[in-house]
Design a protein that fits this description.
The complex is a heterodimer of chains A (about 350) and B (about 325). By secondary structure, chain A is α/β, with parallel strands linked by helices. Chain A contains 10 helices and 12 strands. In chain A, helix 4 crosses helix 6. With about 325 residues, chain B is α/β, with parallel strands linked by helices. In chain B, about 30% of the residues lie in helices and about 25% in strands. Chain B has an 8-stranded mixed β-sheet with strand order 6-7-8-3-9-10-12-11, sandwiched between helices. A 4-stranded antiparallel β-sheet of chain B has the order 2-1-4-5. In chain B, helix 3 packs across helix 4. The chains are: A alpha/beta (about 350), B alpha/beta (about 325). At the A-B interface, helix 6, helix 7, helix 8, helix 9 and helix 10 of A face helix 6, helix 7, helix 8 and helix 9 of B. Bound molecules: adenosine-5'-triphosphate (2 copies), iron/sulfur cluster (SF4) (2 copies) and magnesium ion (2 copies).
């Protein structure tokens, strides 16, 4: 089905660690997944499972102390004559010209908290104009016109006036729209959205999700949507990656993930989410225990201390690999070994 | 159900002054809570929902008198025969009543003093109110820790060593120390991960069944609200626009804002990709609310009358109150 085209971005066995005095934090520990043109890949998992570090690794903007230790991040680019070339982003130096060029153009990122990503000293317009001129040789006047068009496209009312405002003068929803406009200024192929609606009200969230869908349709964008909200994943994603403690534990098409989940963690996560479709005043299913501290990562399968199907002598000793299940699903669990 | 309400809020208003210029001249008011009325029975959960800034926190802070209301009554039944108006009571006479009403906060990280042990934190309300002896307080703290699902041996530890869910349990244990009848919980699970959130939601339900607690549950997540509430009040720009039993409100909303709010909630099933109602524009500014019905600039059912006349909260079915001119003529869609 989706595999009619080649992935635009393939992450292979990505490992990003933080070296600290207390020990090594294996923030991302062997993640693999593919992103296809014009599709949305949802990455879901609880706090600390490595979603943001994965995103930042793709863009080569991992915080200080952290480093890509292993793996490949393969970006497929058209070379103009109908051919493709493949560039391994993991091999680029984070501050090299090429890495910066890709960050500024082919892959763009939007964050959860737009407030911190704008300068309070410059108008939002000037920041978008700067971003446009960084990758395109246009005059300020032309860039300003383009910025107004971008703001209009993301649904900012009266963009010719809003462009001269500062980010703190805007509401949360408008700020997130401006952030999306800025990300789109370089005409990216891949948009990484890290919890883009987590700080917003449901009604504003619905507006922003609608906008992302509409932009995807118009521009054929590939979107990596990172969230801890299974509802947002169900609404938006074509394919889903479920992470736990830096690993991909399961991935597949959205319908299979929700209707035929395989990994015990995916199954329990789905049962524990509150649903607006539930009967009033019903308890939620719970997962025993809590997520281990990153320094005390369990040996073997990272989920084994909480897993109801734990097999002693196996799950706490050996590490399950991600193996194919059926047509498009992959799962990392000994229950599914041949 | 007990017919005499434990708490009855009547025409509550809280206006914050807006001051401008060097002379701090009064330039207007933020009508954060604007004529709100509701009641909570013993052992019941009433949830307050609505978008950011609609006045949920201000309402709950007025009830606990952490804020002084601008107008209105907060009638609290302290026992079978006594009802007091908390809105009028001088601060000095509030303390004995404060014991009966406690608060749980959103952020378990900032609400606990890092230099106090769990014992100090949980027993503080007992000490302040002169309840018990040092020995009986240790027993009470052990009992409370057990009640919220933490090992009593933890009492000598400091909060920094605990996870978000464990800290929320500590906050709940502290709130229960004085045997309150009413717990005001302002977004108690919004900062928590899904699996931890499920544990705390269940704990709140269990404690209610065991101790007969009433909850005023403030939240913006309608899915969580569905799991905990007996009744739900929907606020919009400082006013309650609809209040009803949980199942009625979710399956047969009668206010256009409630309908839009429900339709915007993502359903955790890709086969139900929703027909979202996208509300245009933004929430009105409570300092400069629109004329007539505050919701009219965003309402797809608005008629001329809505621009000039503000609707009253009417009981259109037993226990179901709605503030909309057209409540009886429009067909709205809920979720079930
Ligand atoms: N700058 C850093 N230094 C040390 N450890 C870090 C740093 N950034 C992240 N980590 C650790 O890496 C792990 C993964 O973090 P990450 O931010 O990717 O989680 P996440 O899945 O995005 O969580 P959330 O849902 O809370 O945003 C966590 O254990 C985190 O503590
Ligand atoms: N101390 C204050 N001074 C002036 N205005 C205030 C004050 N506290 C709150 N407000 C205003 O009153 C309105 C209601 O705020 P409140 O915090 O009660 O909303 P809320 O429903 O709890 O929102 P949220 O979901 O964001 O917590 C907002 O417009 C807010 O800006
Ligand atoms: S490998 Fe074992 S412990 Fe891990 S999820 Fe599968 S059954 Fe559970
Ligand atoms: S009174 Fe009018 S504007 Fe207000 S909610 Fe009802 S129909 Fe809409
Ligand atoms: Mg993150
Ligand atoms: Mg609040």
């Amino acid at each position: 089905m989706q595999q009619t085209s080649q992935p635009i971005l393939s992450v292979r066995n990505l490992k990003t660690y933080f070296h600290q005095d207390e020990g090594i934090v294996r923030a991302v520990d062997g993640a693999s997944f593919d992103i296809y043109p014009g599709r949305t890949l949802g990455i879901v998992g609880e706090s600390g499972c490595g979603k943001s570090v994965t995103a930042r690794s793709i863009l080569q903007i991992v915080d200080k102390g952290g480093r890509i230790e292993d793996g490949e991040i393969l970006l497929r680019r058209a070379t103009g004559n109908g051919q493709n070339d493949i560039l391994d982003l993991a091999k680029l130096k984070p501050d090299s010209r090429q890495a910066r060029a890709i960050r500024g153009s082919e892959i763009a990122l939007i964050f959860q908290e737009p407030m911190t990503s704008f300068s309070p000293f410059h108008t939002v317009g000037n920041q978008i104009i700067e971003a446009i001129r960084l990758h395109k040789p246009v005059s300020r006047t032309e860039a300003r016109q383009e910025a107004i068009e971008l703001l209009r496209m993301v649904g900012i009312p009266r963009p010719d006036r809003r462009i001269d405002e500062y980010s703190f003068q805007l509401s949360g929803g408008l700020r997130q729209r401006v952030m999306i406009a800025m990300a789109l200024s370089s005409d990216p192929k891949v948009l990484i959205a890290d919890e883009p609606t987590t700080a917003l009200d449901v009604t504003t969230q619905a507006q922003v999700l609608e906008l992302l869908q509409q932009l995807q349709e118009e521009k054929g964008l590939s979107i990596i949507l990172i969230t801890h909200d299974m509802g947002v994943i169900a609404e938006m994603a074509d394919d889903v990656v479920v992470m736990y403690l830096g690993r991909v534990v399961e991935q597949g098409p959205v319908d299979e993930i929700f209707h035929a989940p395989k990994h015990p963690y995916t199954r329990m996560l789905l049962r524990s989410i509150p649903s607006i479709l539930a009967r009033p005043r019903t308890k939620l299913a719970t997962i025993a225990g809590s997520i281990p501290h990153p320094y005390n990562r369990p040996a073997g399968c990272p989920f084994h201390p909480r897993c109801p199907e734990f097999m002693p002598g196996k799950c706490d000793v050996l590490e399950p690999e991600l193996v194919r299940q059926g047509e498009n699903q992959e799962v990392s669990c000994f229950l599914y070994e041949e | 159900m007990n017919e005499q309400p434990l708490l009855e809020v009547k025409n509550l208003k809280k206006y914050f002054p807006i001051r401008k210029g060097l002379l701090r001249r009064l330039a207007g008011h933020v009508r954060a809570v604007d004529d709100v009325s509701f009641a909570i029975r013993k052992g019941e959960t009433l949830s307050l929902v609505g978008e950011s800034g609609c006045g949920k926190t201000t309402t709950s802070r007025c009830i606990l008198r952490a804020l002084d209301p601008t107008a209105g009554q907060i009638r609290y039944r302290s026992n079978e025969s006594t009802v007091v108006d908390l809105a009028e009571l001088p601060k000095s006479r509030l303390r004995p009543l404060r014991r009966q009403m406690q608060m749980i906060f959103q952020d378990p990280f900032s609400s606990l003093n890092p230099r106090m042990t769990l014992f100090d934190i949980i027993s503080e309300p007992l000490v302040v109110n002169n309840v018990g002896t040092p020995q009986s307080r240790r027993e009470r703290v052990a009992e409370l820790l057990e009640l919220v699902g933490l090992p009593p041996e933890f009492m000598n530890r400091y909060p920094h060593a605990f996870s978000g869910g464990q800290r929320q349990r500590i906050g709940i244990a502290r709130a229960l120390a004085l045997n309150p009848a009413l717990i005001v919980a302002d977004e108690p699970v919004s900062a928590l991960d899904v699996s931890v959130q499920a544990q705390i939601v269940n704990l709140l339900l269990d404690l209610q069944a065991e101790l007969g607690l009433a909850y005023l549950f403030v939240a913006h997540d309608l899915s969580v609200v569905k799991h905990v509430s007996d009744r739900v009040a929907v606020m919009y720009v400082g006013k309650i626009v609809e209040i009803a039993e949980t199942s009625a409100l979710f399956s047969q909303p009668r206010h256009p804002y409630t309908e839009a709010l429900l339709s915007a909630v993502p359903k955790p099933d890709p086969r139900l990709r929703s027909q979202r109602i996208i509300l245009e524009g933004e929430v009105a500014d409570p300092a400069h609310p629109p004329s007539g019905c505050y919701f009219h600039p965003r309402c797809r059912y608005a008629v001329d009358r809505c621009k000039t006349e503000s609707p009253e909260l009417n009981e259109i079915e037993p226990g179901h109150f709605v503030s909309c001119h057209r409540a009886n003529e429009i067909e709205l869609v809920g979720v079930s």
